[in-house]
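Quarterly update, task 2.4: JFZ-bound model.
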Amino acid sequence: MTEMEYFKPERGQRPGANEDPRLDWWRAAKFGMFIHWGVYSIPAGVWKGEHIPGIGEWIMLRAEIPIPEYEKLAPQFNPVKYDAEQIVKLAKQAGQKYIVLTSKHHDGFCMFGSEETDYNIVDATPYGRDILKDLADACAREGIKLGLYYSQTQDWHHPDGFGNTWDFNESEQDFGDYIDNYVKPQVREILTNYGPICLIWFDTPRIIERHQSQELLNLVHSIQPDCLVCGRLGNKLGDYATAQDNAIPPDLQAEIDWETPATINDTWGFKTHDHNWKSTTQLIQNLVDIVSKGGNYLLNIGPDAQGAIPEPSVERLQAMGAWLDVHGESIYGTEPGPIQGEADYRTTQKGDSVYLHVFDWPASGRLVLPELDVKSTTWLDARVDAPLSVNCAGDSTTILGPAAAPNEHVTVIKLT
Ligand code: JFZ
């Protein structure tokens, strides 16, 4: 899959090629919460009365907003509804085992108290609190791992960062100086001041050179050896591969560790007018699909300018958590199952149990699978009391259940 190739690190292989125990927790976790939050949540997709197309956190580039104008957002940023504890509890309720917050996105605004620039939430806003510190403390209290997104190449505010062609002339920029004297000190800050960081999510490695990627990887591991680094560090370095946004590989990716970063609507950063929320069923089927192919699902929330989480996100995450409360055994700590490539169901496995996830329940109640040596079948949801039987004959295995789907989202049958 090309985009997987794009971010596929040389390492990050499955056991055998690279039995890196540092990824064991990540492989078992399967499901994380992405948080895209910054001053872009103030315009929220609208600039001078015009709806700006595209993802909300890119509004500065899409509208080519000059730095002096965009900087005026910071003194307006006062997210009094931000509640780190509530966010972490939502992640736990949803069944998300780790959180990844945007510490600095492409617009260059730092959502943490940095000594390298005053262009940060502590020094440049009336709010004046280090929201990353509050989140790190809440994660520690609630036992959830914390990771950080950091845009190491694109920085539309810094004179030597990449991507701002409307305020700067690239030929006059010194990207090497940006990496050495701004990025490296900030990476050191976020890995020193906020406790254990489970992963750094670098992004869009547009012009970064191999030695620069390597130096950043070495820096991360010199400060926190167990901190994972995603494949968007660039130059095929990093611990695991990252697919294109919202992209799910069409087939099993057995030889690498990989994830799909995804949105619940169509934007990462909050947009007032983006109401295209995926259904809970679609989100659960995406999770199952990804896990059945060996990946992790990093699903995003975009808090608004007040720090509140859009209610449609909350509802869907809580519904995903309710499904996982009953069916989590078929997701967490599993490996891809023996049956792959079927349209209406997916399989995962753990020990001698295979979990059959049925997406589109047949009205006949009859599921014909390729040959499997099945000793017994049970509904994973013990509340289901519908009839269930299995018949292994020749080269197929037939499961017979009720006409109506036992679960409104995804029905799971445990085969032993
Ligand atoms: C990047 C960011 O630009 C975006 O704002 C968001 O943070 C997302 C999670 O990551 O977007 C990308 C990066 C790479 C691809 C697509 C979108 N890609 O490789 O196709």
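Highlight for this quarter: The chain has two domains: 21-330, 337-415.
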